[in-house]
Structures are given as structure tokens and as C-alpha cells.
């Protein structure tokens, strides 16, 4: 009795531990599905968003650098071209014989100079003799550097200076006057012309790279010689010198040092608390002049920041949508499994009447619910039938048949066969007892005639019962061993089922992840196609720009350089897109192949899990029935031992059988009456 109570307590503890495990497992599975799928979605989205923002910013900065450097170069060439044009005018005047001949009146020379000034949009012109005195006004210009340079036989362009004639800031274009108008002979004077006072500033002001952008020029000492702000030119602002006392100008000063060194370049600096970018290029055929194009970085990064913000919003919206969908997906998977597991736990506790979970989905969870219902129904039918069979046998009715034969399928059929074997064994034993009782009755009638015959019969009967006892003991040992094996097998099968279920869950997660990766790869392929189309359009625009630049001739030479760079960039983009497309197509094919293999593996593993679950239930039933058989065999063993004692007693009393034959006959009749209480099956 204590052993049975202990087994009941252990079974109750085991039921509680299974219930707790199921609850924790399903909660963990739902969380694991949610976290895993969200990780596979959110991490690529974040990476894609960050990469997109970085590439967008890098592309904007690269394009901005190329465009500003090209603008600086084109502006430098424009200034060079205008200065060269003015030098050509001055040099042409320097070899004009009408200006060189002494017999030509000053009025006529003045008319020639004024005519040329008017034709070229100049402000004025002048001729100086070898002493630097103007032949028209008598002013002395001998101290001017441009006069000295021209007298040395070289044409030159002065830096902005205060004019002695007008008192305004002017740039002087000077050229030597050659004897007899023959270039390279004796210098007999200097001719100079003065363009519009602000022509360099006008060029700088016309450069408009952005809303707050500007351009300026510096000389070889770093002083400003052209700027839209004329005050900077008048004051000859020099950032290189100012940086010696103001550390905030060091970055700008370093860039201007590269300018005066004749370099082309690009850089950034802070001025007045604003971060700016600068592209610079030297002006050829000048005395170390260089042009800088500057603009606040904020003028260009607004669209970039808007693009980054839009990308961040799209990624955030996608993450929120993914969270919602994944939670619904995890709930649709875990809830049916949890409900079915709870019903199976109730079944393990002996509940055969609770409702079966109703699942409306069309996927595997529907199959799980149907299988759970079928398990509960069939096990209920079998347990009810076994209860009926054992109940009838407990009422001494061994002539009983199963009323749910179809429920014992597969390994469960062994349970019905075991019950039948018990029934047949007990019926056979009782039948033998009935026959023995009849023989005892006959023997009691003959004891009076032959005591020796009774002794021999009693001896034979004792031998038969001892053999039967040995057989029953052997059978009891086999039943006990079968019970131990069934319990061990049940535990191992349950462990394997749990491992297979966990493996199946991993396979399903991998299948879903690979499907998401495949979809993301297809989306990236579409993006690559769009980039390729953009590269083709850019290449076409570059070709058109090159054609227009060729038509523009010398004035479009700088624009042709820009168009060539854009075409080269478009070609590189097209090649990179083609390589990327091939890699993505290979990746998509591999992902699809992996998805098919994972799906087949998941289906096969699910079949294994279903089979293991059925085996576990069958083995548990076999173990329980084996325990019952073991108890019955112990009772039979006790009964046979009692019969053996009776037979031995009969054998010992064989010598007195004559005197006790009447008493033995009465006992035989009573034994027959007891056997008649059992309804035996036909064997």
C-alpha cells in the first residue's frame, strides 16, 4: 500500500513538472520567434539605412568637391582669358606705328587709344615715354612696378592699386612699345590700358555655387585682390598674416598657403563660426594669382539631411510594421501549440472530458489540433474499454469481449492482447482448478476402496502444481522486466521527442529567415536596376554635355572637363552595378535552394516528432498495464502456493484417506461451488 501511494505521489510531481516545462517552453518559443525574426529584419534594415545615409553623404561630398574644383578651374581660365585678351590689346598698341611715330600728333594718338579703349570696353588708356611721363597729361608713373616691368620688355598685369589719375582702385595692363613697331627691338615707351575697375570683382560676384557662396582672388603674398566685397580688396586682407595672431584662421591660412604655392585643391575650414568648403586653382600667366570658390557646407547638406531623415523614417516605419506582424505571427504559432500542449497535460492527469482546442487556421497548427483531438478521443476509448474489461473480470466474468477493438491500432494493439492473455491465463487456471476439483470428488469416492491410488494421485497432483508454480514465477519475472524496460523506453522516447521538437522549431525559424533574406535580396536587385538606369542617363547627359562644350569652343573647355569626369563616373557606376547584380543573383539562387532544403527537412522532422509522440504514449500505456499484470501474477502465485500446500496436506493424509474420504468429498463439492461462481471464457 505504501509503494502504491509513493508511485501516485511521484506521478503527481511528474505531472506538475511537465506542466511547468510546457508553460515555460511555449513562452520561450514565442519570445524566441519574435526576437529572432525581428533581429533578422531590424538589423538588415538598420545596416541598410546607415549604409544608405553614409553613401548618400559620401556621394554628395564627392560630387560637391568635383563640381567646386571644376568651377574654380573654369573661373581661373576665364580670368586668364580676359587678362590675356587685355594683354593682347596692350601689346597690339605697343607695335602700332601710328603711336610710335613722332610725326603723328598727340591728338591723333589719343584718338587711336580712345578708339581701342571704347572698342574693348576699357575705361582709359595712356602712353608713357621712357622716363615714365604720360605724353598726354604729363603725369609721372616712373615709380610704378608695371612701368618698370614693361620697360624691361615684358607685358604685365598689375595688382589692384590706387590710380593717380582717378584715385580709384584699378588694375593696369601694360606693354612695351617697340621701335618701328618691330617686336623684340628697342623699347621706346610703355602703353597701358585700364579695364573696368571692378572687372575682377564682377567675375568673382558672377560665381554662384550656392545661396551663400562666394569667390575671391589672392596674390602671391596672400592678399585679397578681388572679392565681391570691395573693402577687402582696398584693405588688402591677408588671412595668412592674420592667422599669426588669430588661431581661428589657421585652417583657412593653410589652404591659402597651398593657393599661393600654385596648387589645385579642395578643403574645409571654419570662419565666423560657420563651417565652409573651398576649392581653389591658380590663374596661369599671372604673378602667382590664385582663385578660391567658397561656400557654407550647410548650403549643400540640406537635401542630404532630408534624405537621411526620410531614410530613417522609412526604416523606423518598416521596423514598427515588422514588430506588429512578427508579434501576430508568433502568437498565431505559439497559441495553438500552447493550447494543444495544455490539453495533453490535462490528458496526462487523467482528464478525458475537457474540450479540444479549436483552431481555425489552415496550416500545421490545424493539423496539430486535429491530432490532439484524435489522441484524446482514441485514448479515452481505450481507457474506457480497458476499465470495462477489467471491471467485468473483477466481477468474476471472464467471458467478456472488447467493445472498442478499432481503437487499438499500431503499438496499442499489444495492450488489448495483454488483457486477453491475462483473461485466458486466469480462465485456463480456473478451468484446471475445476477439473482438479472434479477429480478430487471422484477420488474421494474411490478413497475408501483404494487409499494407495489416492496417495499416488495426490503425489502426481503435487508435482503438476509445483511445475505450474515455477511457470507462473518465471512469467511474473518476465512481466516485471518488461515493466522496467517500458518505463526506461518511455523516458528515452520522451527525451528524443523534445529534442526533435526543438530541432523542428530551429528549422522553421531558419526557413522563415531565408525567405525574408530572399525577399530583401530581390528588393536590392530592383534598387541596383534603378541605379543602373541612373548611370545610363548620366552617361547620356555627359555625352550631350561634351558635344555642347565642343560647340562652345575655347569658352566651353572647362565645362568639357566636367562632362568628361561625369561620363567616367557614369561608366564606373555602370560596371559596379553589373558586378553587384551578378553577386545578388547568385545569392538569391543559393537562398532559394537553401529554403527548399530547409522546408523538406522541417516536414520530415515533423513526421518524426508525430511518430515519437505516439510511441511515447503507447509505451506509457504498456508500462501501466505491465504493472497491473505484475500485481495479478503475484496474486496468482499466492493462490497456487496455497493450492500446493493443500495438495501436500492431502498427500500426507493419504494414509488416513479411508477415514477422511467423506470429509474430502464434502470439500470437493464446496470447491466446485466456488468455481461455479466464475463465468469462464471458451478457450
Structural class: alpha+beta
Low-confidence stretches: 1-18, 21-26
Taking strands numbered 1, 2, ... along the chain, how are they ordered across the largest sheet? Answer: 8-7-11-10-9
Shape: rod-shaped
Helix content: 55-70%
Run of helices and strands: HHHEHEEEEEHEEHHHEEEHHHHHH
Average the pLDDT over all residues and give the rounded result.
Answer: 76
* Largest beta-sheet details: 5 strands, antiparallel
Measured by DSSP, the beta-strand proportion falls in: 5-15%
Please report the number of helical segments: 14
Radius of gyration, whole Å: 56 Å
Kindly report how far apart the N and C termini lie.
34 Å
Description of the structure:
The chain has 683 residues and is of the alpha+beta class. It is 70% helix and 8% strand. It has 14 helices and eleven strands. The chain has helices at 2-94, 97-100, 106-119, 145-151, 199-206, 230-234, 239-242, 250-260, 301-348, 364-394, 413-447, 451-552, 557-652, 657-676; strands at residues 124-128, 156-157, 161-162, 169-170, 173-178, 187-194, 214-218, 224-227, 265-271, 274-282, 290-296. It has a five-stranded antiparallel beta sheet with strand order 8-7-11-10-9. A hairpin with a 6-residue loop joins strand 3 and strand 4. Helix 9 (301-348) packs parallel to helix 10 (364-394) and helix 11 runs parallel beside helix 13. The model is unreliable at 1-18 and 21-26 (pLDDT under 50).
Amino acid at each position: 500500500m505504501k509503494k502504491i501511494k509513493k508511485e501516485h505521489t511521484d506521478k503527481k510531481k511528474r505531472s506538475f513538472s511537465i506542466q511547468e516545462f510546457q508553460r515555460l517552453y511555449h513562452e520561450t518559443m514565442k519570445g524566441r520567434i519574435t526576437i529572432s525574426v525581428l533581429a533578422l529584419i531590424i538589423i538588415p534594415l538598420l545596416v541598410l539605412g546607415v549604409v544608405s545615409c553614409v553613401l548618400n553623404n559620401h556621394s554628395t561630398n564627392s560630387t560637391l568637391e568635383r563640381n567646386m574644383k571644376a568651377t574654380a578651374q573654369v573661373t581661373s581660365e576665364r580670368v586668364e582669358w580676359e587678362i590675356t585678351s587685355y594683354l593682347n590689346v596692350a601689346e597690339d598698341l605697343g607695335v602700332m606705328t601710328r603711336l610710335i611715330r613722332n610725326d603723328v600728333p598727340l591728338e591723333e594718338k589719343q584718338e587711336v587709344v580712345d578708339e581701342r579703349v571704347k572698342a574693348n570696353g576699357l575705361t582709359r588708356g595712356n602712353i608713357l615715354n621712357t622716363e615714365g611721363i604720360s605724353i598726354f597729361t604729363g603725369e609721372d608713373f616712373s615709380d610704378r612696378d608695371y612701368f618698370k616691368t614693361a620697360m624691361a620688355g615684358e607685358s604685365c598685369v598689375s595688382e589692384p592699386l590706387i590710380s593717380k589719375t582717378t584715385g580709384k582702385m584699378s588694375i593696369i595692363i601694360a606693354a612695351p612699345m617697340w621701335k618701328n613697331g618691330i617686336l623684340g627691338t628697342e623699347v621706346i615707351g610703355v602703353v597701358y590700358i585700364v579695364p573696368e575697375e571692378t572687372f575682377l570683382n564682377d567675375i568673382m560676384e558672377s560665381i554662384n555655387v550656392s545661396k551663400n557662396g562666394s569667390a575671391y582672388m589672392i596674390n602671391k603674398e596672400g592678399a585679397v585682390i578681388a572679392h565681391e566685397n570691395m573693402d577687402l580688396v582696398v584693405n588688402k586682407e591677408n588671412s595668412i598674416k592674420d592667422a599669426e595672431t588669430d588661431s581661428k584662421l589657421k585652417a583657412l591660412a593653410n589652404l591659402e598657403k597651398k593657393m599661393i604655392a600654385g596648387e589645385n585643391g579642395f578643403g574645409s575650414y571654419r570662419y565666423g563660426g560657420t563651417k565652409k568648403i573651398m576649392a581653389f586653382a591658380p590663374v596661369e600667366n599671372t604673378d602667382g594669382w590664385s582663385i578660391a570658390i567658397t561656400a557654407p557646407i550647410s548650403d549643400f547638406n540640406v537635401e542630404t539631411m532630408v534624405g537621411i531623415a526620410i531614410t530613417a523614417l522609412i526604416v523606423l516605419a518598416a521596423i514598427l510594421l515588422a514588430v506588429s506582424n512578427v508579434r501576430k505571427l508568433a502568437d498565431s504559432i505559439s497559441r495553438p501549440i500552447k493550447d494543444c500542449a495544455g490539453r495533453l497535460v490535462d490528458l496526462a492527469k487523467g482528464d478525458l472530458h475537457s474540450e479540444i482546442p479549436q483552431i481555425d487556421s489552415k496550416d500545421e497548427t490545424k493539423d496539430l489540433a486535429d491530432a490532439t483531438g484524435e489522441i484524446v478521443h482514441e485514448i479515452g476509448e481505450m481507457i474506457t474499454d480497458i476499465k470495462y474489461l477489467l471491471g467485468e473480470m473483477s466481477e468474476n466474468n471472464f467471458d467478456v469481449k472488447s467493445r472498442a477493438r478499432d481503437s487499438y491500432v499500431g503499438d496499442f494493439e499489444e495492450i488489448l492482447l495483454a488483457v486477453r492473455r491475462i483473461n485466458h491465463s486466469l480462465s485456463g487456471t480456473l478451468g484446471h482448478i475445476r477439473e482438479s476439483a472434479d477429480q478430487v470428488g471422484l477420488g474421494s469416492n474411490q478413497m475408501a476402496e483404494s487409499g494407495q491410488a489416492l496417495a499416488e494421485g495426490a503425489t502426481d497432483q503435487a508435482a503438476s502444481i509445483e511445475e505450474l508454480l515455477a511457470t507462473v514465477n518465471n512469467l511474473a519475472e518476465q512481466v516485471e522486466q518488461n515493466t522496467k524496460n517500458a518505463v526506461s523506453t518511455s523516458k528515452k522516447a520522451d527525451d528524443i521527442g523534445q529534442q526533435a521538437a526543438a530541432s523542428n522549431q530551429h528549422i522553421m525559424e531558419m526557413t522563415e529567415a531565408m525567405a525574408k533574406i530572399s525577399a530583401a535580396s530581390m528588393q536590392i536587385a530592383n534598387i541596383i536596376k534603378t541605379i543602373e538606369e541612373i548611370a545610363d542617363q548620366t552617361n547620356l547627359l555627359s555625352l550631350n554635355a561634351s558635344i555642347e562644350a565642343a560647340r562652345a569652343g575655347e569658352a566651353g573647355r572647362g565645362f568639357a572637363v566636367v562632362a568628361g569626369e561625369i561620363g567616367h563616373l557614369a561608366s564606373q557606376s555602370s560596371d559596379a552595378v553589373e558586378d553587384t547584380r551578378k553577386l545578388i543573383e547568385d545569392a538569391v539562387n543559393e537562398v532559394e535552394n537553401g529554403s527548399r532544403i530547409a522546408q523538406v527537412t522541417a516536414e520530415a522532422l515533423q513526421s518524426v516528432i508525430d511518430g515519437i509522440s505516439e510511441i511515447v504514449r503507447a509505451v506509457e500505456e504498456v508500462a501501466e498495464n505491465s504493472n497491473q499484470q505484475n500485481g495479478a501474477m503475484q496474486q496468482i502465485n499466492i493462490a497456487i502456493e496455497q493450492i500446493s500446500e493443500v495438495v501436500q496436506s492431502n498427500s500426507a493424509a493419504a494414509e488416513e484417506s479411508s477415514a477422511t474420504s467423506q470429509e474430502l468429498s464434502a470439500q470437493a463439492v464446496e470447491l466446485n461451488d466456488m468455481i461455479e461462481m466464475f463465468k469462464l471464457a471458451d478457450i
